[in-house]
DNA sequence: TTGACGCATTCCGTTATCGGAATATGATTG
DNA sequence: CAATCATATTCCGATAACGGAATGCGTCAA
């Protein structure tokens, strides 16, 4: 068994830096495959493959425009990621070093005196 | 070239469901490796390997306690993920169907009349 | 010291990923 | 229809990921 298929798994889809870059670019509007490839400095087939993954998890959608295919952002699938990660917010707000925790404990104890 | 190393990449570290489950479990406190394996229904070596990945990206930390090793959460690394994903919030707030966008465009145009 | 326990590591086989090159498909234009 | 442009797919090779089984290693208890 290898890693879970990236298809139908948003977390895996955004685990790839190039795919994150594609999504970021698409925030400013639709792009053709060639444009994306050029802006990212990758080959056309590579861009096409990444777009396929993003399409399969529903993070982008394609629109036919003549012989071009314009890809647009559909970020709704990112909500799940945002919420999962957000569940940890209390754990990074403030510092949670072991030392810091110890210091906080100390202060708390003293305050109770 | 294969996939980027999961090591030193938080996005990749949380792309694996079992590892997400481990992090979730650790929100309620430290656990030993064996406890985690049992609670997740996976083998001890498997748990140990996932913990290694999480340790290497800094999402967990280990503390020696007798012959056990207690793993604790250090979620600070998740902040980066939360912020990146959060940058897309405006795109999933409200619906962004093509139809909806069209309707919004229409309303906007009329408002300008 | 020996044995048991807890954990990490290694080795192995299977599967998936990624980039590149070549090629296929599909639409537009002449 | 032929040529061209834009995109998708396929094939390939190298690499990495994952789980399982076996093993190594340190710690504690008797």
TrEMBL record, chains A, B:
CDD domains noted in UniProt: HTH_ARSR (cd00090)
Domain HTH arsR-type: from-to ranges: 1-93
Organism superkingdom: Bacteria
Native source species: Actinoplanes couchii
SUPFAM superfamilies: Winged helix' DNA-binding domain (SSF46785)
UniProt-recorded name of the protein: Transcriptional regulator
């Amino acid at each position: 068994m290898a890693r879970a298929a990236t298809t139908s798994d948003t977390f895996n889809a955004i685990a790839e830096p190039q795919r994150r870059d594609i999504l970021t670019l698409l925030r400013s509007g639709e792009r053709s495959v060639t444009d994306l490839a050029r802006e990212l400095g990758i080959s056309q087939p590579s861009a096409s493959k990444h777009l396929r993954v993003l399409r399969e998890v529903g993070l982008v959608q394609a629109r036919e425009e003549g012989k071009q295919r314009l890809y647009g952002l559909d970020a709704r699938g990112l909500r799940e990621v945002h919420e999962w990660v957000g569940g940890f917010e209390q754990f990074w707000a403030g510092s949670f070093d072991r030392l810091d925790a110890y210091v906080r404990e100390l202060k708390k104890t003293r305050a109770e005196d």
